[in-house]
Amino acid sequence: MTFVLLKRRLTSAFNSIVGMKKWEFMVRFVFSIGGLLILAGLYFWFYRVLKYLDSVSIIGQMLPWKLTSMAFLITFVMVAVSGLITAMTTLYYSSDLRFLFSSPVSVRTLFFDKTVETALYASWTLVLVLVPYMLALGRVKHATMLFYVYFFVLMIPFVLLGAASGILLSMILMYFFPTSRTRDSVWVICTLALTLVYMLLRFVKPEKLVRPDTLEVVAHYLAFLQAPTAPYLPSWWVSRGMYGFLYGQYDVFLWYSFLLFATVAGVYGLLIYVSKWVYMKGFSGAQEGRRIGKDKNNPETTERKLIGKGWLDNLEWTLFWKDRLLFVRDVRYWSQLALILAIMAVYLFSIRQMPVESMPMQSVIAFFNIAVAAFVVASIGLRFVFPAISMEGGSLWLLKGAPIDITRIMKEKLLLLSVPSVLVGTILVSWSNTILRADTFISILSVGTIIVTSIVFCVMGIGLGAFFARYNLENIHQIESSAGGFVYMACCFGYIAFILAIEAYAVRTHFYRTFISERVGWDWRWLAISLIAYIALNAAVGIISWKLGTRALEKHEV
Questions:
Q1: Cα(495)–Cα(493) distance, rounded to whole angstroms?
Q2: Would you list the DSSP string of 375-413?
Q3: 364 exposed, middle or buried (CB, 10 Å; 0-12, 13-18, 19+)?
Q4: How is 111-161 classified by DSSP, letter by letter?
Q5: pLDDT tens track for 123-148
Q6: Distances from the Cα of 305 to the Cαs of 68, 302, 415, in angstroms?
Q7: What's the CA dihedral at 407, 412, 415, 420 to 10 degrees?
Q8: pLDDT per residue as tens digits for the range 18-56
Q9: Rounded (10°) CA dihedral 266, 270, 272, 275
Q10: What distance in Å separates the CA atoms of residue 330 and residue 291, rounded to the nearest whole number?
Q11: Alpha carbon separation from 427 to 336, 347, 386, 423, 460 (Å, rounded)
C-alpha cells in the first residue's frame, strides 16, 4: 500500500503540471528563474566569504568547517521547528486524512506516508539554501564531484532526523493534550520563538563580520571553539562525515554515514511501531471541537455602537463582526502580529545604524526609503489582504446567497484591512524620517505617498486576491506562494517603481533649490504632468484590479 500512496502523490503532482494554464506556467517559470538568480547570488556571496576566511593565517583551515558545522546545526533546529508546525497539519488536520482512514490502508502505512510528506515540506527550502553554501565550500576546498554527491546522500537521513524531532514532539503533545488548542499553542510558541531569533540575529549586528578590524577578534574567538559543535546531533555527524571524505579520512566518513542511516532507521522504525496507538489517540482528539462551559449573551460590541451612531448598517456590521471573530479565533492571524512588530523593529533599527551624517544624503535616503517601506506594506498585504477572499472557503456560498452585493463584501474587507496597512506604513516612514532628520518637504511627500500606496496595495490585494482566489486550500501559505501571489507582488514592485519615477522630478528640483541654488525654478508644466500621471496610475491600478476581482467573484459558482 505504500507504493499506492506514493503513486497517488506522483499522479497528483503530474496532473497539476499538465493541467496548468499557460499564464500559470509562465508565472511559475519566471518565479523559478528569480529563485535561481537568488541562489546564484548566495553562491557568489558564500564563495567570497569562505575564500576570505580560508586565507586567514593559522586558523584559516578551521574557520570554514566551524561555520559549516554551525550552518548544519541551525538548519537542523529550523527543520525540527518547521517539522513540528508542519506535522500538526499533515498528521492531524490534513483534508485527505478522513478519506485515507476510510480506505483499506493500515495506520502505520498511512503514518509513514504522512511523515515523509512532513519531512519534505519542512526541509526542502532549508536544504535549497544549503546547496549554494556547499557548492562554494567545495570550490574553496577544491572538492571533486563525489563530494557533492555524498552531500545530497547524507542530506536524506539528516532532514529525516530533523523532521522526526518535530514529529515526535507533536505526537507527544497530541497524545497528552488531544485538542485543537494544542495546535494553536504550538503555533504561537513557534512564532514567538522565530520572532525572537530573527530580532537577535539583527541586533547582534552581523555586518561587523565584513570589517577587517573586527574579523580578527571574531577569528580569535572561534579559535577557542575547537571542541565539537553539538557532537550528539546529526548536524555534527554530517559535518564530520563531509570533512572526512574531503581529506581522505574514509574511516571517519563511513562511521558517521553509518551513524546517520542507522539512527534514522531506528528512529522511524520506533515511530512507525508506536504510531498505531499514540497517533490514533492524538488524531481522534484533534477532531473534537472546542468546549464552552455555558451560554453567553452577545455583548455590546464595537459594531453595535457604530450602528447606534448611524455610521454602519446591519449588513456591514454583520460582516465586520464575522471577520473580527475569525481574526481573534484563528491564531494563524494574530500570532503573526509578533512577526510584524519584529519586522518593524528591525527595519527601524537598520535605519538607525546607517552611517549617514550629511543632510543631503539623509533626505535622499528618506525619499528612497518610501520604496523599502512600501515593500514591507506589500509583504504584509500578501500575508493578510491577498488571502482575505480565498479564506472564505466553503462559506462563500453563504455570502453569495445573502441579500448583499459582491461589491459591498469587497468594500467591507477593504475598509477593515486598509486601516492597519496605512498605520504600519505611516509609522515606518514617519519614524524613519525622524531618525534620518529629513527636511519638511521630503517628510510630507513620503508620508503622503505611503498612505496612498498602502490604500492602493489593499485595493490590489482584495481585487487580485478575488481574481486569483483558491478556495480549496487548507494552508494559507499555499495562497501566498501561488501564482496569484507572485502576480500581486510583481504588480506592487512595478507600482513602486512607477511612483518613484513620477515623483523624481519634484524631488530633484527640491534638492537643486535646497542644496545648490535657490534660483532654480519650478517647471509647473512638469509638475502638472507628474500630478496627472500620479492620479492616473493610482486610478488605473485600483479600478482595473477591483473590476477583475468583482467580475471573478460574480462569475464564481459555489
A1: 5
A2: HHHHHHHHHHTTTTTGGGGGGHHHHHHSSS-HHHHHHHH
A3: middle
A4: HHHHHHHHHHHHHHHHHHHHHHHHHHHHHHTT--HHHHHHHHHHHHHHHHH
A5: 888 888 889 999 998 888 888 899 99
A6: 59, 5, 17
A7: -130
A8: 777 776 677 677 777 877 888 898 899 888 888 877 776
A9: -160
A10: 16
A11: 18, 11, 22, 6, 21
Question: pLDDT tens across 482-539, in order?
Answer: 778 888 888 898 999 999 899 888 888 888 777 666 666 777 888 899 899 999 999 9
User: How buried is 485 (Cβ within 10 angstroms: 0-12 exposed, 13-18 middle, 19+ buried)?
Assistant: buried
Residue labelled with grid coordinates 481522534: 284
- Please answer whether residues 162 and 123 qualify as being in contact, where contact means their C-beta atoms are separated by less than 8 angstroms: yes
Q: Is the pTM of this model over 0.70?
A: no
Angle, alpha carbons 457-443-527 (nearest 5°): 75
Torsion of CA 344, 349, 350, 353, to 10 degrees: 170
Distance of CA 363 to the CA centre of its chain: 31
Amino acid letter, 501: A
- 304 CA to centre of own chain: 36
The angle, 0 to 180 degrees and rounded to 10, between the axes of the packed helices 22-54 and 63-90 is 150
What is the rounded distance in angstroms from the CA atom of residue 274 to the CA atom of residue 288? 22
Cβ contact 129:74 at 8 Å: no
C-alpha cell at 468: 486569483
Mention every residue, 6+ apart, whose C-beta is less than 8 A from residue 542. Answer: 456, 459, 460, 463
Of 462, 473, 470, 456, the C-alpha closest to 538 is 456
Distance CA 84, CA 113 (A): 16
441 burial type by CB count under 10 A (0-12 exposed, 13-18 middle, 19+ buried): middle
